[in-house]
Structures are given as structure tokens and as C-alpha cells.
Amino acid sequence: MSEHGYQKIFKLRKAVPEARKQESTVDSHERERLIMDALRPYSKDRKQTNLTEIKFEQTTEVTKNTSIVFVILPEWAYNFPPYNIARLAAVTKNAGYETHAFDLNAKARSDHHNWEGLDFNPWDGMRDWKWLGDHYHTELHRYVEPFLTEYVNKILEINPTVVGFCLYYCNEEPTKWMIAELKRLRPEIKIMVGGPQCHGSHWTPWADIDYTITGEGEQLILTMLEQIEDGSAPPKAWLRQQEGQRLDLDSLPSPDYSYFPPEDYMMPNGVNMELSRGCTAKCVFCSETHFWKYRGRQARTVLDEVSDLYYNRGVDVIWFLDSLVNGNLKELRAFCKGVIASGIKIYWTGYARCDGRMDLEYFQDLADAGCLNLSYGIESGSNKVLADIDKGITVDEIEQNLRDGAITGVEGFSTWFVGFPTEEIQDLYESLMLIWRNRNTSLTNISVGHFQVPPDTIVAQNFKKYGVATSFFEGNWIHEQFTNSKIHRLIRLKIFNIVLNNLVNDRNVSFVNRQSVDDHYRLTFADPKLLKEIEYEKFDFNISKPGINPLADSVVNEVWPLLRLLWRSRGAYHIRLFFNPGIDFKEFGDWLCCDFTATIDFTIDEAGHWSTNCNYKFKQSDKAWHHVDFSRAESVAADRARKLAKGDYGDDLFNQGLLDAEARTAIDLSFDYAYTDTGKWD
What we know:
The two termini are about 40 Å apart. The protein has a six-stranded parallel sheet with strand order 2-1-3-4-5-6, with helices on both faces. Strands 7-10-11-12-13-14 form a six-stranded parallel sheet. The chain has a five-stranded antiparallel sheet with strand order 17-18-19-20-22. It has 22 helices and 22 strands. A hairpin with a 2-residue loop joins strand 15 and strand 16 (about 475-480). The longest helix has 18 residues, at about 140-160. Helix content is about 35%, strand content about 20%. It is globular and about 80 Å long.
């Protein structure tokens, strides 16, 4: 979670949360009646069907010989105590197992200011790639190792039976190191891992891992601990949640935050919670939607948990971690009505879908219940791309939600990506136009990335439908027509950030995403104060026609949406824009960068007369192509994605992919091109 854009939340920070005195018994009875009256029109009076209830003999005492320590390592979110291991710790503790938990991510984040010689913030979301693979070992591990060693010794002092780690894509390397150290010093300790990284079909357990948990962990961990307790546990095991199983969230004990000192976090008076698990949508780019099926909690039980945290622990800020808090619009509204009726003063946020059914009155209920902001997965401002990714929303709905949020005070954070396989230059332009048009609505934060194809997604399970080649090019996916490659996506991501860095608005809200991108260009406006409102337009961006190869012919036109938007929104200007490995690798990492350089000089006056001088050069590496096919990926999530993708998975298609990949190894897309031109825009 980025600190940027969350000013409303962080203004609510309290150094020490304090419990609150509840009303008298009479007032409490009246309050309960008001709450129930508020809930009744919206909330169901019974749970969803086909839920699995977790049953165990709850106790407040340690009754088992087996003990467990939960650990989360950097890098991950640090604003609130970790909900995942707080929930798991509550389950094992209530089941009678001696339980400990360490959030070493938050502690390391606090400690990193003492890491002498470190010249960047490793918890900057734009630097997460520095925790990956060789980057971690060359740039970070020497700083992190002393800190990890300290806590290896503390864990060994506890002498647990099991140490459980939560794995994310960006904490895998330090976790791998700590596990190896624990096994080296105490081989008999059992190592258990779970978390999002374990769900993917691309992931396999390391040799030092004894037990892997895939899926919702509460029941699976209890099953494993029971086997360890009675001596029936195998030496190695991979426990997978049954496909289609959905745990009853209302049957779980409340998360145990006693292991996490409030002062370790940016928001000491805040916690994470969940209204639901899973997602009602099946966006083709998303792997999270296949982890588990959607089910929600009843508004009444959520409100009870919130009240306990509010009165007994002084919590009044909540971040709901759901894939989308508005997966069940009626139950979310019931929660809001209950909060309003209860009189408690909380403030909350969460991830949501834009939805036209959330009208102005709905937004007012959200605001009155303490909703400060919603984080929308907008992804694109093109109706064509939104349809292709099966987002289930339109640009009109997006703009409506952003306008209603502005009226009611519910801010809109948003996530976007560039380079979906069917995205064309016009689609990118429409995203940039939507952002400019809505800079004065409720938008307060914009996070943009580039499209990837994780194996456990519908796109990855049907390359043919989306035009993705069965060969990766320079280490990343490429369109089968070579018109969407890592070079295209690098350009799109950079120009998207240039727009954000110059997104002037009348609300004194900064949209800066990658500030260091300002070093990649020089931009001068004839009238810096000039701001223009724009309408959507279709425009032909096929301006430069070098006739070299499909990659070159499309790459050289990628910057035109930026140049066109700047003129329409800010008037006359001059820009000099750079691409070269020296600056691009530092900012974007090797996932987007290769031996590509470019310099674009462009000048336009108020009347639309423009001139440009551009130089492009790309040198293809010796081993640029390699075959990729995810149709045989093995995981519950991949299986679910494959069923929805409805692709052709036969041996003939696989073998044809191999032949195509072999043929592509002879293709060299290198080019060197200079372009000078003038023109006039209306």
C-alpha cells in the first residue's frame, strides 16, 4: 500500500489507540434495536449455502505439544498489522497450540533507516523489483541479513515445532534465506509455507520446505498440525484446498493482533479486515479471482467485530482487504446502515469495482458510514479493452462513480495497466483522456503498471484468442503480430507517467507516480497556467511509416498519444524525451528494458503547427526468443482459469507452438530509424 494519496487516512493516525467507554445498558439495548432496523432491509438473515464451517474445540489454554511461529518477511505492506497471520494465529491459538507471530516486514521497515550505505527506500512500491531474484542478492541482502539473523536467533530461542511463512512474490528471496538458516541450525524444525506465491502453477517448493499450503489456510493448517501432534504427518506434504470449497468466514475467530505492537505501523489505531473472500468477476487478466470462490460475511458479524475493535482496542481506521468490498452491494449497504445506526465513528477503505448501480444515494451511505475512499481497479479508459478483459463496466460507469464520489467526499484511488494484448494506440489515448477529464473529480491516486500474463489467468490459458505469441521475446511476452512487445509497453508506461506528473488540477492533489521519470524528459509549456477541457476523440496515430518490420513500424508511433494529449490539454509546448538502457533499467527493471534507445524532439504551437526529429535504435539479443506455453500448468487456479478460457489444449496445438517458436528464432527485429517531419493538427 503506497503512502502517496492516502492523506485522509494518515491524518487520522493516533500515536496510542485508546479503548472507549460504551454506553449504559439501556442505551445499548436501544442502539441494538436501531442497528437491527437498519440492517433488516438489506442484509440476509441467513448465511450463504455450501460453506464449510471450521470446527474445533476452542480453548484459552495451551493443550497441545506442538507449537508454531508465524512469520512474514519483507517486502510487503506495513501500514497495518498483517491480517493474514493475525487470523491464522487466532485459529491455532484457539485450537490449543502454543502460538507466536512476528511481522518482520514492519520491523525491518522501521529498522532500514539504520542500514548504512543504502541509498533508496526498499519499501517504495516502484522499487519492489529490487527484492526479486539476483537484484535482491546484489542490492539488498547485505543490508537485510544482520536483521534477519537477529530474528533467526529469537525464533530458535522459542524452539517451535513448526515455523510458518507467508510468501508473496516480493519476499521470496529473504524468506528462502531465513528458511535455509533455520534448517541449518535446527534441522528438526518443520517449515510450512503458504500465501499467494504458493498458489501459482509456476511455483514449486524448495528442498528445505516440509509443508506447503495452497488455498485458504485456516483448515489446512489445523489438519497439518493435528497430524504432527499425533505423529501421523508425512515428512513432506503439499496440502491443497479442494476446488469449489468455500470456508465460512463467520465461523472463524477474530484475528489476534496481540503479537503486533501498534507503534510498529504507520496507523497504530488501524487494522485490516475482510467483508468477503473471492471475487464476483472473472477478469481475464487476473489470477486472484481463481484462488477461491466468492462468499461474503453477514453484515451483523462484521459490525460486531468492528464494535469490539472500536470499543476495546481503540481501533477506528479499517482497511478491508477484500478483492472487492462491493461484491455484494446489498450486504455492503447493510454494513453501512448498521455503522450509521450504531453511532460509532470509524473510517475505512477497500478495493472495489466501479459499478453503475452505486448511485449518488449509495455513495452518500458509504460516506456517512465512514468510507474515506475506494480503490478501483479501472485498468483502462477504453470501452473496447474493458470489454476484452471482461471487466463488466463501461467508461460511463467509471466517470459516474468518480463524479458521485467527488460530491459525497469518497475519494477514488485507481489501478491501471498498459499493454493488454488487444490494446492499440487509440485505446491508450482513451485512457489518458479519461484521466485528464477526471482530474477534478474524486481521483486522488493513480497507480499504473504494465500487463503481464501470469500462468493462472484466462489470457495465459488461451494465447490464441488474445493474439499472444507462443514465444517470449527478450524475456517477456509479445503479440503474434509483433505490435505489442516489452518495448511498446515500456514506452506506454513511461508516457502514462509523464501525463500523471503533469496532471494539474484545482484540488491541490498530486498524482505523481514515478517522480524519477521527470529525469527522462524535458518539457516546457508556452503558458504553464493554461489548462483545457477536452472531449473524447478518435485519432489516426499511424503517422510515421518506416516500412521496416512490424515491431519497428509500430514502436515509432507509440509516443503520439502523449504528444497529442499534451497539446489538446496544455497548449503549445516543446518536449525532448529519452529512452536508453542506462536510465530505463534503473527505473523499470529488466522486465521491460532491453537494448533500446530513442530520442524524440517535438515542438507544437498554439495553432497546431508541429515539427519533430526522432531517432530510434533497437539491437536484438542473441537469444531473444524462447517457447512458452501455460496450457499444461498445474494448480487449482490454473485449472479454474483453463475451464473459463475454453481454449484448445490438444497436443497438436502444443506441437504447432513449438514449430512456431523454432521458426521465430530466425527472426531479427533489430532496427535503426531516424524520422523528421512537420504537420498541422486541428
